[in-house]
Amino acid sequence: TALARIPAQSGVSLPKAPNDSAVAQLLAEAQSTNVTDTVARTLLINLSNAKARGLGSDIPTQDTLIADAAAHVAQERGEPAYAAANLTTVENTPTNLRAYGNVVIAALNNHKKANSGDTLLAIGYAVDYADATKLQTLPAIQKEYVLLAQELAVLPVPSTIVPLHLSVINNFARMAQTYADMGAVITDPLRSIAGLQLYQSLLKENGRVFTTIAAEFTKNGILFSKNEPGNIWSLFSAQ
Prior knowledge:
Elements: H1 2-10, H2 20-30, H3 35-52, H4 59-73, E1 88-90, H5 94-110, H6 116-129, H7 138-153, E2 156-158, H8 162-177, H9 179-182, H10 189-219, H11 233-237
Parallel strand pairs: 1-2
Helix pairs in contact: 2-3, 3-4, 7-8, 8-10
């Protein structure tokens, strides 16, 4: 009651709350194919709306604004490209495990362009020098990830390795899909950041899966000689 008297006593009226339908229309109009522009416009509208309601400086409101902005940037993994039915499953014997270990590394060697080093170099150069020249290398790297996933998908896989192998090839396939986003680093930096974060997350996950596969070889007494491609598994065993 005391608060209600203040406007009348001071001669100053409270500002009218924004019209919800008008705010909703502005938010709808703020949407675009450019994630960075969308987030910037949406954040401005939401912040203006909050301040008009006497909010904006409090932590809950700020957290809400940040969460809304982050929701535009977050990327989902989507549906997996491959299912267990797409794989050729073989018996879990020492011979098959050894053969699998060798052909997987051979496949990785066949697609050396599918690597994070060249990817991060191109993106880093574009960011540091505002130069999109090196971004032209990304489509070729993306294609190698697609081909790598396809080659791994047709290999004979020991039954105990199937879930792990499936995770690996689906991660490689999804990594390939992030290149369109990462390549937009100059024109749509937030979209690029989201793609890069997902790419790095999938990369780390595959590293963990490879370590688990290497442990399967050790558990089954599979040792690769120096002349076999599979000797690389020892690097994952040491992690």
